[in-house]
Write a structure and sequence with these properties.
Largest sheet: none
Oligomer: single chain
Mean pLDDT: 77
Order of helices and strands: HH
Strand content: under 5%
Length: 85
């Protein structure tokens, strides 16, 4: 039993380390994208285009969060109904 717990702890440490590495590389990629957008939209003449890009980013950001909230609520409701019966 002790060996099994020790193996599970080492596996969880490896998974946490891999997650951290992947999270680090995703952050690097996101910063590069923001720099590209900033370079493409810099200047006073592109204010309308910059506002449109910002609105598009907000729209694209809201949809996944909205889906997660809806799915989470449905799972919560199913769990609550199952527990009541």
């Amino acid at each position: 039993m002790y060996i099994k717990n020790k193996i599970q702890k080492s596996n969880s440490k490896i998974q946490a380390m891999l997650f951290g590495i992947c999270f680090f590389f995703i952050g690097i990629s996101a910063n590069a994208q923001c720099a590209m957008c900033r370079a493409a939209l810099s200047g006073d003449s592109n204010t309308k285009k910059a506002e449109a890009v910002n609105d598009g980013i907000v729209y694209l950001m809201v949809i996944p969060y909205l889906l997660v909230v809806i799915i989470g609520y449905l799972i919560y409701r199913m769990y609550k109904n199952k527990k009541a019966v």
